[in-house]
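Hey,
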Amino acid sequence: MKGLEPSAIDLGEFSISSATSLNDMIWFMAGLLLLMGLTAVTLWWQRRSQPDPFTAE
């Protein structure tokens, strides 16, 4: 046994200091809210443009 050989795969840094910053979390939440808003507008526009054929008029 030669001892500990260096690993072929570097797993990176596992420390608390490498956690995601607050600025990144804010941008992530803003993007998520933007996607949710665009989805709601798209669904509303689609529902508005085509009347439901199963409703009695």
